[in-house]
What we know:
Layout: H1 3-19, H2 24-38, H3 44-49, H4 62-74, H5 78-86, H6 89-95, H7 101-112, H8 117-125, H9 137-154, E1 157-158, H10 159-174, E2 179-184, H11 186-189, E3 194-195, E4 198-204, H12 207-215, E5 220-226, E6 230-235, E7 240-245, H13 251-259, H14 262-274, E8 278-280, E9 283-286, E10 289-292, H15 296-302, H16 318-323, E11 338-339, H17 353-362, E12 367-370, H18 385-401, E13 406-414, H19 425-428, E14 433-437, H20 446-458, E15 464-465, H21 483-492, E16 496-500, H22 510-518, E17 523-526, H23 538-547, H24 561-564
Parallel strand pairs: 4-7, 11-12, 12-13, 13-14, 14-15, 15-16, 16-17
Antiparallel strand pairs: 1-3, 2-4, 5-6, 6-7, 8-9, 9-10
Amino acid sequence: MKNEQIAASFDELADLLEVQGANPFRIRAYRNASRTIESLTDSLESMLESETDLTELQGIGKDLAGKIKELVETGTLEKLEELKSEVPPGVLDIMRLPGVGPKKAALLFKELNITGLPELKAAAEAGEIQKLKGFGKKTEESILSNIDQAAQAKEREFYATAEPLVEEIVDALSELSSTKQVSPAGSFRRRKETVGDLDILVTSDDAEQVMDALASHELVQEVLQRGDTKQRVRLIKGLEMDLRVVPEESYGAAMQYFTGSKEHNIVMRKRAQKRDLELNEYGLFSGKKSIAGKTEEEIYQALDLAWIPPELREDRGEFELAEKDQLPELITLEDIRGDLHMHTTATDGTASIQEMIEAAKERGRKYMAITDHSKRVTMANGLDADRLRDHWRDIRKVAEKIKGIHVLCGIECDILEDASLDLPDEVLEEADWVIAVLHYGLKQDKAQIHKRLMTAIKNPHVDIIGHPTGRLIGKRPGAEMDISEILKAAADHEVMMEINAHPSRLDLNSLHAAAAKELGIPIVISTDAHSTGGMDVMRYGVFQARRAGLSAKDVANCRTWAQFKKLLK
């Protein structure tokens, strides 16, 4: 039982309790415990084995420690199973819709016996939702506009959620005596923001041994299909995985074929046909003669192309660059030198100033910015001018004692619904680093959103627009805007743009980030960490940047401190 599984169990328990209208303090306890667990570097399993007192962890009391032990020892939680038997799983999907929440989901369940998204859509289309107390026509319209996206999101998982599952299975299969090569393919290998079905390719002398190993793996819930060289299983998160055992001489061809994308593969097949060749999952053929297939590199070479990194395989200009051998040298996690968006206990973070600085330094960062929320974010205990200045004084005092890392006093400042900024200019002028963001009013019309963003971009103290569209993947779309106009303005006013690395945001998306690169706008990849462990999501922001075709030179926080500070306003 991994930490993320335990954290997910506590989150699910909190969701179910919310639907039932349980004590808010009890619900908050589970949510806080989940965040603590996610930020741990040591596994709870190993901590229990070494008889560590879990109640010493922040937010973990005797009762929660007992539940952690129960999960680790049995793989299940009696209380969670009890609640799941009382609340249909589809009700949780309903409560995650924008504008619904637990209370309304509970009401829909109790009054209309709606237990899932299909039933909800039918009721909304029939006009039954608006008749319920506390709903109304606007809520019904919001449900209809968001429900298809929510249904699609249910079929997919964040890349970050799938990653530890895939890595554990790949590692397990790699250790088999018969296995020679193992690799994930599909959208996972292309590092898409979300993934559906997973693909694993293996070369092995004993396909039966490989499939037996997968079938018996602890992360596999059920074997759905099994043949001589192909097996389909369902994992614990509900994701389905296809395992294919392929001949060694076809491994590269299979990797290219099953990695995709569909659009990329269509172009590859057409290139082969123009050369009187045939390309499929078994290889590149001239008649019946195999021309290439053992490695991807030899297939691309035979089609007069440089090897194209998986993240770029979307038929978005990669072939033109590969023909000229001008593909970018994509950014890597090791290129990152700074982290410029994070929170402390001053607002809604779980770690102190010192803990966050030390954690950034441990991860090899040479500079960082502490950017707690401004006052508009009341639910996060946002800072007014006086508290913010006190906070900056505290940051400077702590930073003086820790050598080897430059610490900026920053602020995540809200762009308010009336197109003003949440703090006055005389305060922002004192900041080392100002992130301007949209948090509220994301459903305002396009013209107002444009006005708000332009206010921030034109402000002489704003360094960067954080998570520019405000989207949450699979939960809410971003604000409506003309992104090309916003990016042009940012370029004109020398304002940077963020790729927020949190797996639920990844905002800018890859297309917008690529457009920003074309305009010469420096991109900053930031973690938006609310805990020390939250800094580890940087990798997902890097993956997003790779999908956008970004090199280290395109990313501002890949620069040395001396180079980066020249960008500061």
